[in-house]
Amino acid sequence: MKIELIVVGKTATPYLKEGIEHYVKRLTHYVPYEIRTISDIKTSKALTAERQKEMEGGFILQQIQPGDRVVLLDEHGREMTSREFAAANMMALSERAYHKSEFIDLAYSVPNYLKDFQAIKPKKLF
To answer: Rounded to an integer, what distance in angstroms lies between the CA atom of residue 57 and that of residue 13?
Structure first.
Protein backbone atom coordinates (compact mmCIF):
# COMPACT_ATOMS: atom_id res chain seq x y z
CA MET A 1 0.00 0.00 0.00
CA LYS A 2 1.23 3.47 -0.83
CA ILE A 3 -0.20 6.68 0.59
CA GLU A 4 -0.33 9.67 -1.72
CA LEU A 5 -1.45 13.08 -0.50
CA ILE A 6 -2.68 15.34 -3.30
CA VAL A 7 -2.66 19.01 -2.36
CA VAL A 8 -3.40 22.24 -4.22
CA GLY A 9 -0.61 24.82 -3.90
CA LYS A 10 2.60 24.76 -1.92
CA THR A 11 2.88 25.52 1.77
CA ALA A 12 4.83 28.74 2.30
CA THR A 13 4.71 29.00 6.10
CA PRO A 14 8.09 27.81 7.46
CA TYR A 15 6.86 26.09 10.63
CA LEU A 16 4.20 24.19 8.65
CA LYS A 17 6.78 23.09 6.07
CA GLU A 18 9.04 21.89 8.88
CA GLY A 19 6.18 19.98 10.52
CA ILE A 20 5.19 18.35 7.23
CA GLU A 21 8.78 17.30 6.52
CA HIS A 22 9.09 15.84 10.04
CA TYR A 23 5.84 13.88 9.68
CA VAL A 24 6.79 12.58 6.21
CA LYS A 25 10.17 11.42 7.52
CA ARG A 26 8.49 9.49 10.35
CA LEU A 27 5.75 8.06 8.13
CA THR A 28 8.07 6.72 5.43
CA HIS A 29 9.56 4.28 7.94
CA TYR A 30 6.24 2.42 7.93
CA VAL A 31 4.66 2.91 4.51
CA PRO A 32 5.59 4.33 1.10
CA TYR A 33 4.38 7.93 1.06
CA GLU A 34 4.35 10.75 -1.47
CA ILE A 35 2.98 14.28 -1.60
CA ARG A 36 1.78 15.45 -5.01
CA THR A 37 1.33 19.19 -5.33
CA ILE A 38 -1.03 20.56 -7.94
CA SER A 39 -0.09 24.10 -8.90
CA ASP A 40 -2.40 26.95 -8.03
CA ILE A 41 -4.45 28.17 -10.97
CA LYS A 42 -2.61 31.30 -12.12
CA THR A 43 -5.66 33.07 -13.53
CA SER A 44 -7.70 32.49 -10.39
CA LYS A 45 -8.59 36.21 -10.02
CA ALA A 46 -10.47 36.06 -13.32
CA LEU A 47 -12.41 32.96 -12.22
CA THR A 48 -15.25 32.62 -9.79
CA ALA A 49 -14.54 30.60 -6.64
CA GLU A 50 -16.88 27.88 -7.89
CA ARG A 51 -15.13 27.60 -11.27
CA GLN A 52 -11.71 27.51 -9.58
CA LYS A 53 -12.88 24.62 -7.35
CA GLU A 54 -14.18 22.76 -10.40
CA MET A 55 -10.85 23.15 -12.21
CA GLU A 56 -8.82 22.11 -9.16
CA GLY A 57 -11.14 19.13 -8.68
CA GLY A 58 -10.58 18.12 -12.29
CA PHE A 59 -6.81 18.21 -11.83
CA ILE A 60 -7.13 16.08 -8.69
CA LEU A 61 -9.37 13.54 -10.47
CA GLN A 62 -6.72 13.17 -13.18
CA GLN A 63 -4.30 11.93 -10.49
CA ILE A 64 -6.66 9.23 -9.18
CA GLN A 65 -6.60 5.73 -10.67
CA PRO A 66 -9.45 3.17 -10.67
CA GLY A 67 -9.25 1.14 -7.48
CA ASP A 68 -7.62 3.93 -5.45
CA ARG A 69 -9.02 4.52 -1.97
CA VAL A 70 -9.85 8.23 -1.77
CA VAL A 71 -10.20 10.13 1.51
CA LEU A 72 -11.13 13.81 1.46
CA LEU A 73 -9.58 15.93 4.20
CA ASP A 74 -11.81 18.93 4.87
CA GLU A 75 -11.78 21.41 7.75
CA HIS A 76 -15.57 21.11 7.91
CA GLY A 77 -15.56 17.31 7.97
CA ARG A 78 -15.92 14.95 10.90
CA GLU A 79 -12.88 14.92 13.19
CA MET A 80 -11.44 11.46 13.89
CA THR A 81 -8.66 10.13 16.06
CA SER A 82 -5.91 8.10 14.39
CA ARG A 83 -7.48 4.90 15.71
CA GLU A 84 -10.95 5.82 14.45
CA PHE A 85 -9.53 6.68 11.02
CA ALA A 86 -7.59 3.41 10.86
CA ALA A 87 -10.63 1.38 11.93
CA ALA A 88 -12.86 3.11 9.38
CA ASN A 89 -10.49 2.23 6.54
CA MET A 90 -9.28 -1.23 7.55
CA MET A 91 -12.32 -3.08 6.21
CA ALA A 92 -11.90 -1.79 2.67
CA LEU A 93 -8.16 -2.49 2.74
CA SER A 94 -8.74 -6.00 4.14
CA GLU A 95 -11.35 -6.80 1.49
CA ARG A 96 -9.09 -5.59 -1.29
CA ALA A 97 -6.17 -7.70 -0.02
CA TYR A 98 -8.46 -10.74 0.35
CA HIS A 99 -9.75 -10.48 -3.23
CA LYS A 100 -6.16 -10.15 -4.51
CA SER A 101 -5.08 -13.12 -2.32
CA GLU A 102 -2.46 -10.94 -0.65
CA PHE A 103 -1.92 -12.76 2.62
CA ILE A 104 0.94 -12.16 5.05
CA ASP A 105 2.08 -14.83 7.48
CA LEU A 106 2.29 -13.03 10.82
CA ALA A 107 2.30 -16.15 13.01
CA TYR A 108 5.80 -15.54 14.35
CA SER A 109 6.14 -11.79 13.88
CA VAL A 110 6.65 -9.41 16.77
CA PRO A 111 5.17 -5.92 16.63
CA ASN A 112 7.94 -3.33 16.87
CA TYR A 113 5.87 -1.01 19.03
CA LEU A 114 5.69 -3.34 22.03
CA LYS A 115 8.04 -2.84 24.94
CA ASP A 116 9.97 -5.74 26.44
CA PHE A 117 7.96 -7.69 28.95
CA GLN A 118 8.69 -6.73 32.54
CA ALA A 119 7.38 -8.91 35.35
CA ILE A 120 6.49 -7.04 38.52
CA LYS A 121 5.22 -8.14 41.89
CA PRO A 122 1.56 -7.28 42.44
CA LYS A 123 0.83 -4.61 44.99
CA LYS A 124 -0.99 -5.58 48.14
CA LEU A 125 -4.66 -4.72 47.79
CA PHE A 126 -5.33 -4.48 51.57
So the answer is: 24
